[in-house]
Amino acid sequence: MDHKDSHRKQGPEKFWFALDNAAKIFPAVISKKFTAVFRLTAVFRQPVKIKPLRKAVLLAERRFPYFMVQLKEGFFWYYLEYLPQHIPIETDQQVYCVKFRKGELLIRILVKNTSLSIEFSHILTDGGGALEFLKTILVLYAGECGSEIPAAYQFPEPVAPIPEEEYEDAYSRYFKEEIPPMVKRSKAFHLPYTLKPFARFSRLNAILSIKELQQAARGKGVSLTVYLVAVYLYVLQEIFENRSTSNKYKRNKRLRIQVPVNLRKIFPSRTMRNFSLFVMPEIDLRLGHYTFDEIIKSVYHQMMLETDEKLINKNIARNVGGEKKLFVRGIPLFLKSFILRMKYYSLGPVQYSGVLTNIGKVTLPEEAGAMLDHFLITPPPPNKLLKVSCGAAGFGDKMVICFGNITHSHEFEEKYLQFIRDQMIAVERSEL
Amino acid sequence: MIQCPKCGVELEENANFCSLCGDPLAGKSSEDPAYVRSGKARKDEKFLTDYQKLTGFQKRKIFWKISGIVLISGIVSTLLIDFFVNQRISWSKFPATIGLVIYINFTLNTFLRKKVVFMLLLSFLSVTGLFTLFDFYAGGTGWEMKLGIPVLVAAYVIVLALIFVIRNSGQKGLNVIAYSLIASGMLCGCIDALITIYNRNSLGFDWSLVVMVSVLFVSVLLLYIHYQLRKATDLKRFFHI
To answer: Do the chains contact at A113 and B8, CB–CB below 8 Å?
Structure first.
């Protein structure tokens, strides 16, 4: 007989929880191509040591039990159920953001040479939650390699009860009734490139100096995110204007960028699940050509306006209000998925031309930070309308911009990076 | 400090293969004693008794040998007792024949387990032989052709179908009980029909109808529990709204 089983540790109780408000849309729209999986990568200065990494991941797993779940179908909703498995640690084959299969955890770790990547399904959490998890692994890894672990990352044994706030669907907490929902926006311009066949998602990384970038942004009196969004819009405008007037893509003349905003910075919450929303700065090309300065000014004010707490409330009201209605809740899952899919196509990427997600400057305790060179966020594969997506992450003096692309053309990326070079900011292409 | 040539991660000094990608490291081929030892040592860690080390076939063979000794000695001793008491073989031919048929069936189960259809066919022939011999001992009433063998055919066909269904069902649990109940209900139906034909020379069902209806009711319930509720062990999470 196999005696191993009797020694196996009993895992925590089989807990479960409902999907948070932002995650609810994903199971309905996820496919092999549109996977809703994003990747965070930490690039070390030295090759990754596999044994300390394994130990660090095992420790982190105990601290973040709510990530150890699988997606299950209920009668009315999907839900997440505890899955007593360890997070798989695999060799990184450089195939990015592959869909998670049924019965799997919604998280995986991929390692190659000096890079350590974590892929998360958006069903589980957003960039903010995922970054916390990665940071914990990095600090514990540094600890396993001999560094001192700061008090904030030390977990007593056995792990103290996890604060419920980390589990919570924070959207529900900040949902206010009787707030009028957002109005639907018009269709936006989309990049006109032809799609690659399957296994089409590729990426291109560029490393920039944060100092130089900041100088350029400060010169215009705006933040890095606003600056990068403005460049995005400017390049889209150029691509738009270069097309012949009869081009079908020119029918929609609004250029809009979806910029995820980490709501933890606006509403106090320690949730580790999705808690972000989008703002969508736009320029309307029916009003004529915009100069870069005009775009910067407009984006700056739109971002300031849209990240206003009251306006965010309006957004939450739209998203959460729907799922609170009893007649919506009572629709069986298969019908609900169908309706959600329709909603996504009418309210989703149709309304914006591009995505730029900036997870900001990552900070780590000194000793853990000293092991690292830079961070990288690979955005989820864009859908067929969007075609290109963009993620930015900063660490030390390095800002890495990652372009995800599913088309044959790299015109957008080339133009984007060329514009930055023209502002006297050095751009280094990274092969990682 | 060594590095895996394939995936580039850093490994323990004494590693023989990469724990990430599983590739043996350069200069550490599979013939390396250290490499071989690791696998062997892991196997030895498992404590097993001599009996646990045997394969399924070896275990069945032991059972076959023991049952052979018990049955054959039983047959011989009953025959001898009968002979010494009555000076001839009278009643003992019944238990002796049954013992022999049981032994034949054990033998078939030991050696032909992989060939189910062939095994059941031979088993069927052996039991047919048993019935024929019983009829012969009893003076040739002919019941075995009219009743015994048809019931036997029905039983074997139903068992064969049951084995086929169970082997092909994915997850085994309450559904196996349900299938077995349905099979027994069907067998009851067959037996009932054959008996009425034997007695009245016309086809009809009496008591077996009640059996079949109740068996069907219970089976459907079991199958529903197995296939529908299995997915949702906790109804609260399945139906959360």
So the answer is: yes
CB-based contact (8 Å) between B20 and chain A?
Answer: yes
Q: What pTM value is reported for the model?
A: 0.69
| B18–A contact, CB cutoff 8 A | yes
**Shortest CA gap A184–chain B (Å):** 27
Hunting for tokens 């707490």 — which residue is that? Answer: A309
Q: Residues with Cβ < 8 Å from A413, sequence gap 6 or more?
A: A204, A206, A388, A403, A405
Is B83 in contact with B119 (CB distance < 8 Å)?
no
With CB atoms and an 8 Å threshold, state whether A16 touches B46: no
> Cβ neighbours of residue A366 under 8 Å, at least 6 residues apart?
none
Contacts of A91 in chain B (CB under 8 A): 6-7, 20-21
ipTM score of complex: 0.74
pLDDT tens for A318-354 read 788 878 888 888 888 888 898 888 888 888 889 999 9
Closest CA relative to residue A205, chosen from A374, A372, A431, A44: A431
d(CA B7, CA A90): 10
Q: How far is B197 from chain A (nearest CA, A)?
A: 51
pLDDT given at position A293: 95
Minimal Cβ distance to B238: which of A47, A75, A90: A75
Q: E strands within A239-353?
A: 254-262, 276-279, 282-284
Tell me the C-alpha distance between B66 and B60, whole Å: 10
Which is it for the CA torsion A116, A119, A124, A126, positive or negative? positive
Residue type, B36: V
The CB-side HSE value for A102 (13 A sphere, CA atoms) comes to 4
Residues of chain A predicted below pLDDT 50: 1-11
**Least Cα separation, residue B6 to chain A (angstroms):** 9
- Out of B19, B20, B47, the one facing A3 most closely (by C-beta) is B47
* CB spacing of B7 vs A113 below 8 angstroms: yes
- % of chain B with per-residue pLDDT over 90: 34
Tokens of A318: 């739209």
The per-residue pLDDT for range A357-409, each reduced to its tens digit, is: 999 999 999 989 999 999 999 999 999 999 999 999 999 999 999 999 999 99
The tokens 């052709």 sit on which residue?
B145
Give the whole-angstrom CA distance, residue B178 versus residue B215: 8
**Distance between CA atoms of residues B133 and B131, nearest Å:** 5
Decide if B241 and A77 are in contact by the 8 Å CB cutoff. Answer: yes
Cβ atoms within 10 Å of B128's Cβ, excluding its own: 18
Residues in chain A: 432
| Structure token digits, residue B98 | 């049954």
Q: What tokens were used for A386?
A: 């969007």
Nearest CA to A88 among A122, A64, A117? Answer: A117
Angle between helices A224-242 and A292-306 (to 10 degrees): 130
Nearest to B240 among A49, A77, A113 (CB): A77
Size of interface A-B (CB pairs under 8 A): 65
Alpha carbon A79 to its chain centroid, in Å, reads: 21
Shortest Cα–Cα distance, B8 to chain A (Å):
4
Q: Which residue has the tokens 């599979």?
A: B30
